[in-house]
Write a structure and sequence with these properties.
Helix content is 41%, strand content 22%. It is an alpha/beta fold. The chain has one domain: Alpha-Beta Complex (Maf protein).
Length: 157
């Protein structure tokens, strides 16, 4: 698995901060970030919003979830922007999707797809992409998501 070492070093130099709102990755992204020395200079806050209830409490519009499903780019974008606004972070990361399971509470949306949004508050821009969760385990699928986020963040520094 890749590491956030370069991201942490460059964001520290640029005095930029990151916050995350994760669902299916269960805090995996922030865990990988905090595995790097100096992460405390960059990370402001992380929320694991596994349920719709807590996505909504963190500012995600219920109307967006109802219209597009919790498993959508629209929801991931809301997650990334709302966490950035909540913490006044330069970068907000929103992650939602299904990893090797069907969600009986949210039957809509693509199975085995993770929707990711990286919101850049300074530019008011979103970078959205999805990762197909085709690996044999949840753990490996989380690694695929984290590696892709690292790749995307390294492109903007």
């Amino acid at each position: 698995m890749k590491t956030f070492k370069k991201v942490i070093e460059e964001f520290t130099k640029l005095n930029k901060t990151i916050s995350t709102m994760e669902s299916c990755t269960g805090g995996g992204v922030v865990n990988a970030l905090t595995n790097i020395e100096g992460a405390s200079e960059v990370i402001k806050f992380s929320a694991v919003t596994y349920s719709n209830e807590y996505k909504i409490k963190m500012g995600v519009s219920k109307d967006i979830i109802d219209k597009y499903s919790v498993y959508s780019f629209e929801t991931a974008k809301e997650m990334s922007k709302k966490i950035s606004e909540f913490t006044n972070s330069n970068i907000g990361i929103g992650i939602t999707g299904k990893l090797n399971r069907v969600d009986v509470h949210n039957p809509y949306g693509e199975d085995n797809v993770v929707f990711i949004s990286i919101y850049d508050k300074d530019k008011d821009e979103y970078n959205t992409f999805k990762v197909e969760a085709k690996a044999s385990s949840r753990e490996l699928n989380k690694e695929l998501v984290i590696d892709r986020i690292i790749d995307e963040l390294e492109k903007v520094i």
